[in-house]
């Protein structure tokens, strides 16, 4: 009677009855292998496990790796978080145990209830989780070979004698969790120098974690620092905005309200290479360089999701490579940003894109300012530049300025017949400017390509070559020429020193 009533109320005449529904359970052997190919990299898989440790209120997270007796590698992530009871552990090991649409804590970094399993399966065939809470230890293990052989979702409980032999178990305190990866069949180490290759892979993990969790490592107001260490060596945070450097431009915070939640934009312009040391400039470029590093950096609960993209609203070009925009979103807007299982992809909703388009030009114009400002400063100081920039028929070209005082004086001293040849040589030199090489060097090695940075000795040699015969008789005229001629114009202190020494 009750069943009939419920069906009459909830199912329309055209809806199928329960007797018409086929329940199709996925085959464990095929499904478990398919889940391995969602698209995790080693670095993103480790980051997904760290998410769980942070959600468990861990203040220290240790990444450990080593070699078993058979020379096969293992990797473990150990934290001092709140730990889990046995019932909680079994639930955590279940695939899809959480509804991604259900409400959750505002600081929770998870969403689908798949990260622990899919991240681990993508790298290893044996996943063991050992957890301790209130002095009680529990353990469960997914062995993918066992799942395949039985074609069933069988979750092992390791024996006590196995527990004491697991790497990293001894590091567990009175509470915390160990995630252990063994049988790392996706870890391509080659056949030679495997330990060296493993160290290189771990170095890549360190770089990724230092960026993705930099705000947790460095700490923020109201949020304590979290120590993340690799084989007991704490990682340093990598702030992609270099926000504390005095030469970094802060363009102000811009909030946007969406569905009663707030998305916050914080644009930054990194320092020009002339304002930081060569080491800092190289470090801030990161492994991908400045060109690919520009764009939006999307943070979900302070955890970096995606970076280095303008979401196809602008091109990544050389003049804006210093622009980076921090975008903070809450986990309550995941459905609008289409956050994927790996937490490495996001797409802004239309409401955000409209705002981004309105502020993007301001951000990009500010990013060009360090370059345009430097060029303008040189032009203002130099009444007669050596090179002239010409714009004709929508094309930009450069030519040597024949009216430059040094060239004009030299040309005047030449016989009439030689002047024609001199003009021809200058024209050839102007047409031979190596644009491609200059662009490549300035983009990849700006510190080594800045031709304006002359030493005092080289400036003195050049000044002697040009002015030594005249500076004694007419120092004021020589000083005036030097003040309007590069590279002397950029070094006014040297000009005064040179004139005073000769006088």
| Total number of helices | 20
Q: How much β-strand is present in the residues?
A: 15-25%
CA-to-CA gap between the ends?
115 Å
Give the overall silhouette: elongated
Question: Which blocks of ≥5 consecutive residues have pLDDT under 50?
Answer: 1-11, 373-382
Overview of the molecule:
The protein has 503 residues and is an alpha+beta fold. Helices cover 40% and strands 18% of the residues. It contains 20 helices and 15 strands. It has helices spanning 2-10, 28-34, 42-55, 86-92, 115-121, 144-150, 160-163, 194-212, 214-218, 278-285, 289-293, 334-337, 350-381, 405-412, 416-431, 435-444, 446-449, 456-471, 475-483, 492-502, and strands spanning 60-67, 73-79, 126-133, 136-143, 176-182, 227-230, 233-234, 249-250, 254-258, 261-269, 295-300, 303-309, 323-329, 387-392, 395-400. The strands form three sheets. It has a seven-stranded mixed sheet. Strands 8, 9, 10, 11, 12 and 13 form a six-stranded mixed sheet that branches. A two-stranded antiparallel sheet has the order 14-15. Strand 3 (126-133) and strand 4 form a beta hairpin. The chain is elongated, with a radius of gyration of 32 Å. It starts with a helix and ends with a helix.
């Amino acid at each position: 009677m009750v069943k009939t009533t419920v069906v009459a109320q909830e199912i329309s005449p055209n809806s199928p009855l329960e007797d018409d529904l086929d329940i199709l359970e996925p085959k464990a052997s095929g499904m478990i292998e398919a889940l391995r190919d969602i698209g995790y990299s080693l670095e993103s898989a480790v980051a997904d496990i760290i998410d769980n440790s942070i959600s468990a209120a861990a203040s220290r997270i240790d990444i450990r790796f080593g070699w078993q007796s058979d020379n096969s590698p293992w990797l473990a992530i150990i934290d001092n978080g709140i730990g889990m009871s046995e019932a909680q552990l079994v639930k955590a090991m279940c695939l899809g145990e959480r509804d991604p649409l259900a409400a959750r804590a505002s600081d929770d970094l998870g969403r689908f209830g798949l990260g622990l399993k899919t991240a681990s399966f993508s790298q290893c065939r044996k996943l063991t989780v050992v957890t301790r809470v209130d002095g009680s230890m529990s353990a469960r293990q997914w062995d993918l070979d066992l799942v395949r052989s039985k074609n069933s979702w069988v979750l092992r409980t390791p024996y006590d004698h196995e527990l004491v032999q697991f790497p990293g178990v001894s590091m567990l305190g009175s509470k915390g969790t160990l995630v252990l990866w063994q049988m790392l069949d996706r870890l391509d180490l080659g056949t030679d120098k495997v330990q060296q290759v493993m160290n290189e892979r771990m170095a890549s993990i360190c770089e990724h974690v230092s960026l993705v969790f930099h705000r947790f490592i460095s700490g923020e107001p109201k949020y304590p620092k979290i120590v993340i260490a690799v084989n007991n060596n704490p990682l340093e945070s990598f702030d992609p905005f270099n926000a504390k450097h005095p030469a970094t431009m802060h363009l102000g915070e811009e909030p946007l309200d969406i569905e009663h939640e707030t998305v916050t934009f914080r644009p930054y312009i990194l320092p020009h290479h002339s304002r930081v040391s060569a080491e800092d400039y190289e470090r801030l470029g990161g492994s991908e360089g400045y060109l690919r590093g520009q764009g939006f950096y999307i943070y979900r609960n302070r955890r970096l999701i995606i970076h280095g993209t303008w979401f196809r609203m602008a091109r990544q070009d050389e003049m804006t490579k210093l622009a980076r925009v921090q975008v903070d979103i809450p986990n309550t807007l995941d459905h609008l940003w289409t956050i994927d299982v790996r937490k490495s992809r996001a797409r802004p909703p239309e409401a955000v894109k409209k705002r981004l388009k309105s502020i993007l030009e301001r951000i990009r114009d500010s990013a060009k300012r360090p370059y345009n400002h430097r060029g303008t400063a040189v032009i203002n100081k130099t009444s007669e530049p050596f090179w002239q920039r010409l714009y004709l028929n929508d094309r930009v070209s450069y030519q040597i300025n024949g009216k430059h005082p040094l060239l004009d004086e030299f040309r005047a001293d030449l016989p009439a017949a030689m002047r024609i040849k001199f003009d021809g040589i200058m024209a050839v030199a102007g047409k031979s400017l190596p644009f491609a090489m200059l662009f490549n060097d300035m983009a990849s090695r700006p510190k080594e390509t800045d031709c304006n940075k002359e030493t005092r000795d080289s400036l003195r040699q050049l000044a002697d070559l040009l002015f030594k015969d005249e500076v004694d008789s007419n120092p004021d005229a020589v000083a005036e020429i030097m003040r309007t001629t590069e590279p002397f114009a950029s070094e006014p202190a040297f000009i005064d020193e040179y004139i005073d020494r000769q006088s």
